[in-house]
């Protein structure tokens, strides 16, 4: 039974999770475009869009008050770009009326360039800023972790970190998926404590109530630990694996106690 639970856990990770994430992703897309009508405008926050990109050894921070999707092109308005040499050395600031994300670069229109060692800004009607960001990366960066396949999550988390977005939820979700086989094994052990060596005279109602209360208790502990992980009060790996580990040790201890008793 324990082996079957472990195999079922790996089956969920490798096959069921990618299938479910693909279906959920399609639902989210249809819900956003057909029902909510969010296909043309994405509001990231009250202050607009903030995006950090790395290209070769340089980095830049892009701010825009509005982001629109026109077909396969991302269009930004009222754009400010802070360019850095390396990671922390400020180089220049670019203020542009519009910016379009094209293949391998940002196309800036009506841009004013404020260099660090220059008092007067320079005006350029159009200019190109190299980038490795694509439409898919920007779109996926706002996706829920449940809409991403288990196999795609590691690369996606790396892309989020590189672009400057927080990958906390995605990293926690990925580790939670990894802990699924251990969690299923723990559930089998806990269920066994309510069935093995039970007397015929034992009231089955008490067993059902005990099992339900145990399930609610474990769910509460799991939810509490996950919340601590989201707040970064505990490490992400601990927040993802602790619920499964606690359930496994608890079930193992209860089984050993009944076997010895």
Would you spell out the secondary-structure blueprint of this structure?
Elements: H1 2-35, E1 41-42, E2 49-55, E3 58-70, E4 73-85, E5 89-102, E6 105-115, E7 122-130, H2 135-140, H3 153-163, H4 168-178, H5 180-193, H6 204-230, H7 236-260
Antiparallel strand pairs: 1-3, 2-3, 3-4, 4-5, 5-6, 6-7
Helix pairs in contact: 1-5, 4-7, 5-7, 6-7
**Number of DSSP E strands:** 7
Structural class: alpha+beta
Instruction: Give the number of domains.
Output: 2
What is the ordering of alpha helices and beta strands?
HEEEEEEEHHHHHH
User: What's the rounded overall pLDDT mean?
Assistant: 80
Number of helical regions: 7
CA-based gyration radius: 26 Å
Morphology call: elongated
Low-confidence stretches: 38-44
Question: CA-to-CA gap between the ends?
Answer: 23 Å
Helix fraction? 40-55%
**Strand coverage percent:** 25-35%
Major β-sheet annotation:
7 strands, antiparallel
Q: Can you offer a commentary on this structure?
A:
This protein is of the alpha+beta class. The chain folds into two domains: 45-139, no CATH class; 143-260, no CATH class. It is built from seven helices and seven strands, in the order αβββββββαααααα. Strands 1, 2, 3, 4, 5, 6 and 7 form a seven-stranded antiparallel beta sheet that branches. A hairpin with a 2-residue loop joins β5 and β6. It is elongated and about 85 Å long. Residues 38-44 have low confidence and may be disordered.
